[in-house]
C-alpha cells in the first residue's frame, strides 16, 4: 500500500516526468512523489526560485509531512539576489542575464549550500507577458543539484503567466523526482 506521498504524478510516469497541464492537483501530486522519494532516501532539499516566486516551496509545504524533507527556500526575483545570496557568478550574470541554464545550475547548488541540504531545486526564466532580457515569455530553465551531480532543463512553455509558472513548478518537481528515481541506492 502506498501513502499519499508515494503516489506518482497524474499523467506523468513513475519516473516523475513533467506533466503539461500544470493543474493544482498535478502540482501537489508531483510534490508528494518527490517528497516520498527524498524521505525514503533520507534526503533534505531547499529551493531557489525566480519566476515562480515561491510557488515551488508553497506547493511542497502544502503536503503534510513536508517538514521531514524541506528545509527552506529563497525567492531570488532580483538578479542581484541571485549573486549576493545564492552565489551565482556575477560575470555569468553580466554575460547572459538571469535567464540561463548555467545560472539555474548555480542557483540550485547555491541554495543547497546555503541551507545545508542534499538537494537544491531552482527556477529562472520569463513568465510573461512579453519578452524579458531578450527572451520570449515561456523561456524557462530549471535545475536540480544533488550529491550525484546537477541536472538542468531548458523549457519553452506556452500559455499565460499563470500557466508558465505552474508548468515550471511541475517541471522542476518532476525533474527532481526523476533524479531521485535514477539515483544510486543509499
Brief summary:
With 186 residues, the chain is of the alpha/beta class. It has helices at 24-40, 55-61, 79-84, 90-96, 101-115, 161-182; strands at 45-49, 70-75, 119-125, 139-146, 149-156. It contains 6 helices and 5 strands.
Report on this structure.
By secondary structure, the chain is α/β, with parallel strands linked by helices. The protein has 6 helices and 5 strands. It has helices at residues 24-40, 55-61, 79-84, 90-96, 101-115, 161-182; strands at residues 45-49, 70-75, 119-125, 139-146, 149-156. It has a 5-stranded mixed β-sheet, with helices on both faces. Helix 1 packs parallel to helix 6 (161-182). The longest helix has 22 residues, at 161-182.
User: Approximately how much beta-strand content do the residues carry?
Assistant: 15-25%
Shape: globular
What's the total count of β strands?
5
Distance between the terminal alpha carbons, to the nearest Å?
22 Å
Query: Considering DSSP H and I runs of 4 or more, what fraction of the residues is helical?
Result: 25-40%
Query: How many alpha or pi helices?
Result: 6
Mean pLDDT: 89
Radius of gyration: 15 Å
> What are the low-pLDDT stretches, counting only 5+ consecutive residues below 50?
1-20
Major sheet, described briefly? 5 strands, mixed
Briefly note the structural class of the backbone.
Answer: alpha/beta
The main sheet orders its strands as: 2-1-3-4-5
Q: What order do the SSEs take from the amino end to the carboxyl end, as H and E?
A: HEHEHHHEEEH
Amino acid at each position: 500500500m502506498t501513502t499519499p506521498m508515494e503516489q506518482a504524478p497524474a499523467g506523468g510516469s513513475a519516473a516523475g516526468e513533467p506533466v503539461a497541464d500544470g493543474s493544482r492537483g498535478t502540482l501537489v501530486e508531483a510534490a508528494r512523489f518527490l517528497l516520498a522519494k527524498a524521505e525514503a532516501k533520507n534526503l533534505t532539499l531547499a529551493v531557489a526560485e525566480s519566476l515562480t516566486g515561491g510557488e515551488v516551496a508553497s506547493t511542497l509545504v502544502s503536503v503534510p509531512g513536508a517538514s521531514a524533507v524541506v528545509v527552506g527556500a529563497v525567492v531570488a526575483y532580483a538578479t542581484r539576489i541571485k549573486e549576493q545570496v545564492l552565489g551565482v557568478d556575477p560575470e555569468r550574470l553580466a554575460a547572459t542575464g538571469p535567464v540561463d541554464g548555467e545560472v539555474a545550475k548555480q542557483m540550485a547548488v547555491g541554495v543547497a549550500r546555503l541551507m545545508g541540504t542534499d538537494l537544491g531545486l531552482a527556477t529562472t526564466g520569463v513568465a510573461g507577458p512579453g519578452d524579458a532580457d531578450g527572451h520570449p515569455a515561456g523561456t524557462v530553465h530549471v535545475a536540480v543539484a544533488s550529491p550525484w551531480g546537477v541536472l538542468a532543463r531548458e523549457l519553452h512553455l506556452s500559455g499565460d503567466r499563470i500557466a508558465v509558472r505552474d508548468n515550471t513548478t511541475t517541471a522542476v518537481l518532476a525533474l527532481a523526482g526523476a533524479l531521485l528515481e535514477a539515483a544510486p541506492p543509499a
